[in-house]
Amino acid sequence: MHPLIRRACALLALLTFALPALAASRERLSLDTGWLFHLGEVPAPPVKGHGMSYHNGKANGAWGAASADFDDSGWRRLDLPHDWAVEGPFDRNENASQGYRPRGIGWYRRYLKLDESDRGRHLELQFDAIATHSTVWVNGVVVNHNWSGYNGRSIDITPFVRYGDDPNTIAVRVDANAMEGWWYEGAGIYRHTWLVKRDALHIATDGLHANPVKQDGRWTLPVEVTLESSAKAARSAVIDVTVFDPAGTEVAKGSLRAQVGALDSAVARTSLEVRRPKLWSLNDPQLYRVRAVLREGTNELDRTEVQTGFRTIRFDADKGFFLNDEGLKLYGVCVHQDHAGVGVAVPESIWEFRLRRLKEMGVNAIRFAHNAPAAEVLDMADRMGLLVMDENRNFNPSPDYLQQLTWLVRRDRNHPSVILWSIFNEEPLQSTEAGYEMARRMVAAIRKLDATRPVTGAMHGGLMAGLNASDALDVVGVNYQIGTYDAYHRAYPKRPMTSTEDTSAFMTRGAFVSDRAAQVLASYDEEPSSWGNTHRDAWRAIAQRPFIAGSFIWTGIDYRGEPTPFEWPSASSFFGAMDLAAFPKTAFWIHQAQWTKLKDRPVVKLVPHWNWPGREGQPVHVMVASNAPRVRLLLNGAIVGEQDVDPFEMAHFQVPYAPGRIEAVALQAGKELARDTVETSGAPARLLLMPDRTALAGDGLDAVPVTVSAVDAQGRPVPTSNLRVSFEAQGEGAIIGVGNGDPNSHEADKASERSLFNGLAQVIVQSRRNGRGVLKLRASAQGVQGAETVIALQAASAPPSVPTAEPTTPLLSWRVSPAFAQRPDPNVKLAETDMNSWGWDEPPIRRGPEAELFRLYRTGFSVRADRNDGRGRLAFGAIAGKAEVWVDGVKLGEKATTDAAPFAVLLPKGAARREVTVLVEAQRGQPSGILGRVVVEAAAQ
């Protein structure tokens, strides 16, 4: 090639390198697939000696699994979300509060490529949550530390990435030994991950705030848009804001102008009027969309949308809570975020199943205790008409922790479902002046971001102390302390109050005789904790006091850890109105009867089961939960008794046991409204599989719980069966977890078998990506007929995602010698303390033209095990000048031409850590050096 042509090509390459990408609209790409995982610590080498210490202090001075060239060839490949704790065994020596599961340290790594067209865009790495503490590196540069397992983080990785053929390396170290809670917290990257690409001037993450306000009978929508810029100069833009009603019709619009300085941010505000909006309510949750489009001239730079709802909320000190100016008692539950089979890595469809179960129970409000829920779960609450107490994890106004609180508010402040911010739960400092000062600062931080919702905190003591945290709250939250309700209201009659936590009663699902030696507690609501009350007594205290806004029972669903009142072998809680698989306990039916209006739906539920062999003629306690005014009980067609239903206590009978059919009939004015029937069953004869839904989206994300049960020869459920059942999934899906709700079970969650517990078990199946056709699930057990269910897979696209790049070993940080007039010894050694006689650079490394013709280029590198078989290649994208390549003092190859050209040498099998030196002889008057990327790659197949 003619030297002028070469020079022109080089100049063109430099110009192309420097040109910014053309503006492109926002891309939010899933990063969930293709991660590599290692359970356990990967010790970094001890930092010793001057050279190593010098490198360790540099921006990209990561060692071990954090470094870009680490050998992860033996690591497990998996997709996120992932909870490694639920995969582990039960261990009596582990923490009871964490469910006796080992947690420890884990590492994740992923490779991705960025196109040259991404150069100049703003690139953001988003983790929705990692349990518990974590550090993130990009290409060996530490980019984020996080001290909570519940908050998301958005990391600007633009300065650290490479474009083109070189993959970028993301490394995440997770410390799950760190605990924030006294419940099962899981371990790992258990929520979604994303790569967001935007123009350098863009709308910030969670930067669109649009929460409707009603004032003087008029509805306005204040809109606030936060812009950020990673551009190199100040830029001006226009923001077009459009509001769409639930039918998708445009109902309001406006424009804002903003100027943002380089590496700066700005906030633009406007207010739009929306006439006669459809209100968001529990029975009719009407949702509006607000869209913000950022333009520079006619060029669209970015856009984002939020959903919002028009509704008013108010807490009154005498009359409780009001939604849209109508009084509404909060029928609430507290829930943690783990589920049978999957731990805290809960698919959205399983969350939707859990919320549906809670609504079926009569729940209208949820306290996500004691932490921020996944964003997708709040979207569901908006759509399903559920109210939310959105709770912060750490009570601390210091900068690291205040950032967690402000992140929560920024992310969630558009949701109509969110009616309360909660800043703490049961803090020892709650009764002190320090607690007041801490709360005051946190409340002030919230009000800067959202002045429309009140702030609460869950106090389990100190309410009547001098200056305490409740003095800083808008709504005083009370945990338990029923005896304090009236006294506090008398002392502070202008302060709204709600129960933030109540009940704490124990039940074992399907058990109706307490056996403390076996760690089983009867499901009759007769086992309160020492600090709580039965479900019935707690609700009575709240329902009879209009000034208490509502109830949040502990808990709606069982959870791993905190196995109160027992410890080993119990590994999960007994508190739930439902068990860990969301199978109802008796508390479910009690609250359904208490919280469902008869005009909406008659409720009648009879407990216990009617399989009591050996107890013939002995009295059995029968409870009937009903919202009807009266119930009648029949045994084998004969009337046993009839009672008025106490709306708190329900109806209770003592019935001499006789096998057969027992029935409860709900009555109003003598007329039958509904009935529930339970029959004595025979021995198990066959299995049943009942999927919650009969179809799955084939996107690789959708999952469905399948109920497993046994029936006798006549098809009657066998509620005492504990058969061990094996499962097999075929077709376009897989089993991702199993469970049965037994708090004392130590059977594996990640398995293809599970025992029934008191007649029930659950298996969760998930679709395959791009799945079509069907998923077949088979169940079998010894001595009974098996079962099969077929679930159709409907074509559905997975979210746009970032392809997984194959790992390479990039050789990045090179020492570059001065130019020599004569050929130097390629193996000349540098003193360990010499950091300056040779320069530092990364490819492309271009030198000259210069008078002296020789230079040495040197770096250390690691060789992956799958490249260290004698067939791997050390490949140079281009070397300009003649060259010799030496590795660990041995010459492996020689480039005889001076033109810039690719070059490669075979890498002999050897040590995992090597040193390469390239001796380059320039052509006089021409530039020279290592012009292209340098990698260790596998031999071509």
Question: Overview of this structure, please?
Answer:
- By secondary structure, this protein is mostly beta strands.
- The chain has an eight-stranded parallel barrel, surrounded by four helices. Strands 3-2-4-9-6-7 form a six-stranded antiparallel sheet, with no helix packed on it.
- Helix 4 (375-384) links the parallel strand 23 and strand 24 (387-391).
- Residues 1-23 have low confidence and may be disordered.
What is the fold's blueprint, element by element?
Blueprint: H1 3-18, E1 27-30, E2 35-39, H2 50-56, E3 76-78, E4 105-112, E5 122-127, E6 133-138, E7 141-146, E8 153-156, E9 168-175, E10 193-198, E11 201-210, E12 213-215, E13 218-229, E14 235-244, E15 250-260, E16 265-273, E17 288-296, E18 299-308, E19 313-316, E20 320-323, E21 326-327, E22 330-335, H3 348-361, E23 365-368, H4 375-384, E24 387-391, H5 399-412, E25 418-425, H6 433-449, E26 455-459, E27 475-479, H7 485-491, E28 497-503, H8 535-543, E29 550-554, H9 586-595, E30 604-607, E31 619-626, E32 630-635, E33 638-644, E34 651-656, E35 661-668, E36 671-679, E37 686-691, E38 695-697, E39 703-711, E40 724-731, E41 733-739, E42 753-755, E43 760-767, E44 773-780, E45 787-794, E46 809-810, E47 814-816, E48 839-841, E49 845-847, E50 854-862, E51 873-880, E52 882-887, E53 890-895, E54 901-906, E55 913-921, E56 928-930, E57 934-937
Parallel strand pairs: 22-23, 22-29, 23-24, 24-25, 25-26, 26-27, 27-28, 28-29, 38-45
Antiparallel strand pairs: 1-10, 2-3, 2-4, 4-9, 5-8, 5-10, 6-7, 6-9, 11-13, 12-13, 13-16, 14-15, 14-17, 17-18, 19-20, 20-21, 30-31, 31-34, 32-33, 32-35, 35-36, 37-39, 39-43, 40-42, 40-44, 41-43, 44-45, 46-57, 47-48, 47-50, 49-56, 50-55, 51-54, 51-56, 51-57, 52-53, 52-55
Helix pairs in contact: 3-4, 5-6
